[in-house]
Amino acid sequence: MGARHVDKRVVIDRNRMTGGGVTAGIDFGLTLAAHLKGEEAARRVQLLMEYAPEPPFRNGTPQEAGPTRVAELTGRTLWMDGQVDAAVTAAARRLGIMT
């Protein structure tokens, strides 16, 4: 569909903004708030939420996890990959960008 991977939690591309990952949704919201209302407003929201992420492990990206752990996890999620491919294909057909 033309998307390409960018190793960032929040990506702004022209008039589009996307976020990936569970807590990246919070990062996305704070980034959007900063764009709409300014950085100080977004900082107030972050403080109200007491959002101060501190993950217990440095394992949240393939680079951090390492090739062994990534390969093991990949082998366990093949069924999910099939579901994702089917959903993308169905969406592309509905949008008329794939036959």
Helix content: 55-70%
> Which runs of at least 5 residues are low in confidence (pLDDT < 50)?
none
What's the mean pLDDT score?
89
Q: What sequence of helices (H) and strands (E) makes up the elements?
A: EEHHHHH
The portion of residues forming beta strands comes to 5-15%
Distance between the termini: 13 Å
Rg, Å, rounded: 17 Å
Largest sheet: 2 strands, antiparallel
Class by alpha and beta content = mainly alpha
Mass-distribution shape: flat
Q: Care to count the β-strands?
A: 2
Notable characteristics:
flat, two-stranded antiparallel sheet
Task: Describe this structure as you would to a colleague.
The chain has 99 residues and is mainly alpha-helical. The protein contains 5 helices and 2 strands, in the order E-E-H-H-H-H-H. It has helices spanning 24-37, 39-49, 62-65, 67-76, 78-95; strands at 10-13, 16-19. A two-stranded antiparallel ribbon has the order 1-2. Helix 1 (24-37) packs antiparallel against helix 2 (39-49). The longest helix is centred in the C-terminal third of the chain and has 18 residues, at 78-95.
Summarize the topology.
Blueprint: E1 10-13, E2 16-19, H1 24-37, H2 39-49, H3 62-65, H4 67-76, H5 78-95
Antiparallel strand pairs: 1-2
Task: Please sum up the structure shown.
The chain is mostly helical and 99 residues long. Helix content is 58%, strand content 8%. It is flat, with a radius of gyration of 17 Å.
